[in-house]
Each structure stands twice: as structure tokens, then as C-alpha cells.
Amino acid sequence: MSESRLNLHPQSRVDRLVADGQWTPETIDGMFRDTVARRGDALAIVDPANRAALAGGAARRLSWSEVGSEVTALIARLAEAGVSRGDTVGIQLANGIELTEALIAVFALGATATPLAMQYRDHEITTMGNAAEFNWVIAARAFGERHPADDFARLRDQLPTVREIFSYGLAEDALCEDSTGVTHLFPAAATEADEAAAAAYRAANPNDPNDCVTICWTSGTEGVPKGIMRAHYDWLVFSKVCQDASDTTEDDVILNAFPMINMAGICAMLLPWVRTGCVLVQHHPFDAPTFFGQIARERVTYTLAPPALLSMLLHNEDLLSKIDLTSLTRIGSGSAPLNPAMVRGWQERFNIPIINFFGSNEGVGLLSSSVDLPDPDDRARFFPRYGAEGREWSMELSKWADVKIYDLETDEEITEPGVPGELHISGPQLFARYLNAETLRNPFDDQGYLKTGDIFEIAGDNGEYVRYVDRAKDIIIRGGMNIAPVELETLIMRHPSVADVAVVGDEDETLGEKVAAFVALHPEQTLELPELVAFLRDQHIASYKLPEKLRVIDVLPRNPVGKVVKTELRKALVEATA
User: pTM of the full predicted structure?
Assistant: First the structure.
């Protein structure tokens, strides 16, 4: 390993937060075992309803005892192979029982899980695999027409630190004709020997809540994916924020449609499930008929949904007449500003409050619940200003976290309402550091606050809120997936016809944004969108990053210091559709 995955946070921070009760000695795997013991034969987890179409195996439903037993068996198989504390395990599995079990098993072994989006192909796999120095890989045997485990095997010579590649899935899942270089593992109930082996491993290798439990990936703005290193300590307190805002209990049935690779899937779904012992219904990839069918069939009480989907649904009377949402008691949404009319519409028409989430993998945790902001218009526009004088909030994090806003030019703190500046946030939910942090800009200020790069302003009659103003970064968010324009621009510049390029987000009612590329060409050259897409596909990038609009222009607009003025490009897109 290029850097230690153990003892992630400085000991001084650990001592201070443990003494203050903000961090506890719990670990995610220990909490899982406690919940298995407590919930026993109660239903725990349900596979995606369309699993058979994706992987060939029938969807399953497991009790807590059953999923606990399968996790134990997987721990035994991985430990036999040599997976151990401090190792790094790349995981590419779709939402489902196997991904859930793989994550918990890797956590229990004291290894670091690095979950990867199913859309990732050769480019992303080798970039992230080498940055994190994967020691092991657990991947799906089949996902639609693809065979991810075999893809890893094909790339083995480009991943020199990988010791072994495992597939994990049901015996009836589709297998590639040539699976050389892959060790196939199958979910199975633990034997007495497995139970003894797992217990012996835990006794010999006790987990420390300060160990790095995950490296999740964010595109950032530098064009190179950044690995976000998190320990049990900070994940568990961060997930408690999501649980507090949604008021999740063991009586809930929660539907997870976000990949369990970052904050939305892990913090808002997986970890509250582990903590409470509720029912987790998995969904992947997003398919509207399947999603709404699961809500009705499983009597889902809580889910997350992107703002665009909620807005579309609210105005689609034909679709509303065909689906049953009567079991839902609240919905979480975020990743983009919420329309007050949408939030108000769901509350007034269906008596379903929309919880407003503003978060990041690094630990930004602003959440507006119906308890703290009962008025739907306020909930859509504002977030609690932690640390505001004379105001208490229902979330436990509000007692420990603090937010400040700083002028981008002077770096002076802004204390009056209505003045935009960069949001800085502190608290026990913050991540420890980036992978290979010495090569990246320090994300923390001198007081240890995270510099979010997002523009907010103080709001409310008594300055008790903060209001989101704009993204300081140029990240494109397409269907909840972050796309770094710089990364895509670098790849497009490799095309022999392209002299200059800028990539921006093009507003889309369903996905939030789509990728639009503006290019200036070399003399006497032409370029059409299908040709560009084919060129990028040949570089094996994730399909969701592919441009869906191409504009050829003579020269890109730049400011006096040479930076592309992307606001002019976005304006051109809006004007073209007006």
C-alpha cells in the first residue's frame, strides 16, 4: 500500500471526539452482528425485482439470520484466500443482496472496500484500481450483456497490485464462456466451521473504528477522480444524520435506487438499515415501472428520488393513476435545488413531506426535515444553519457541527444575510483525507473546516438558515452521477480533429443535466456527434459520461486570463432551445 489504511484520523482528533461522545467504539460490522442477533427471522433485504433480466438469477428475500449467515460464509472464503486487515478490495457489483454482503464482509475483515459504479469500464477501472492499489477484486459475473469479473481479468496486467479476482453471485447467474483468471464464489449459509473461522479471525484481528473502511470516488474539478477515505467513526455519525432526518426505524421498508458506492447509497440507505434493522429493498439500474412496482408490492415507507423525477411525476396524471404510493410516508431528495412548488405539491396533495438533502462524500451534511422546517417552501429553499444563536435543531449533528460562510476574494467571514460566499463546515461527520492527499489541494481551512466549494448565503429572519446559491465547481450531475468536465475534455482533445474543447451541463427535465461538448476544430476538419461518441467509446469510458450534444464553433469564449467562460456556453444552449 502507498499509504496506511489504518488509524486514519489523528489520535488527537479521536481522543477529543470520543471523550465528547461524538464518536463511539462501534464498528459497522459489529453493529451488523448486533442487529442480526436482535432481528433474527425478521425480513431484512429484498433483491431488485428485475434481477433475473440483469444477471440470470432469481430475485431473493432474506431474513436477518439468513443474510448474517451468508456474510459469515463469505468472510470465511475471503479470509481463506488471504484477504486481511489493511488490504484494499475493489468491488463492482450492482445493488442487490450480493453487494450488501460483500461490503459487510470486507468491513468485517478490516479491509478497505472501494465500491465502483457498474458503468465504469476500462478507463475508470485502471485509473481507480491503480490509485487505490487494489489487492483484491470482487465483481459481478454478469450485468446485462457485460461480464465485469472477466473484464477485470482481462485488465489484470494493468493492475499489478491485484492478487486475485473473485466473482460473487448465484450459481445460476450467467457465466462468461471464458472465465479464466476468476475465482467464483457463491452465496451460501455458513457452516459451523465458517462460524468458528470468522470468530477466530475477529479475535486475532480486532477492528479499530479508526481504520479506513471505504474509499469512495468523486470526480472533483481537477479531472482525476479523488478517493475519499472514511473510517467507521465518521461514517456512523454521518449516517446518523440521514437517519435522524428521515426518522428511520426498524418498522420501515426503505427502497434504495442509488448505487451503494457513495453517500446516497451508503450513508442514507445501507448504514441506517444496519443500525435500525428495517427492511432494505434494492433497485438497480433505475427503471421507473420496476421502481413504482416495488413501492406498491413491498409497501415501501421511505425512499430517495431525484428532484426531476418527483417534478415529472407530480404533473403526470396518467402515470399517477396507474401507480400506488399509499405506503410512502416521506421521500428524500437532493443533489440539485428543489423547486418549492414541487415540495409543496407532494405535501399538500399526498401528505408526503420531501426531505431536502445537501451532502457530499466528504461530509457536507445539510438536511431539512419536516420537523425542523414544516413549511414546504422553507424546506425547499433553506437548510439549518448549525451554530446559529438561539436556534435548536432536531438532528444530533447540529450540536456538534458548525457552518460558516467566507468571501471568496477576501477570505473574510460573512455574518450578515444575503451575501454569497463559500460554505465551510465542521463536525464529526467529516472525512479524514483524500487518497494520496499530498498531491491534491488541501480541502480544509486553518480551523479544520471543510471548504465545500459551494456558494451559500445566510437567510431567515434571524439568520437561522443558509440558502444554496450556486455550484462553484463545474461538475455536471447526470442522474445523480458526477461527471468532471476536465476529465472528459482531456479525452476529447485526443481526437485528431479537435483544436479546443469545453464541456458543460445541458439542462434536462429527467436526468437533471446531460453532457454538451463545444469544440473548435482544426482547419478543414469536420466532426459529428456519432463520430465523437464512437471515439470516446473506444477509450472505454463510462457510458453516462458520453456527450449527448455537440456544438462546433469557431473559437471558445475566454476571459482576459484565458479561462473559458462556460456561462456563455450554457446561455447558448438555453437560447437554442427557447
Answer: 0.86
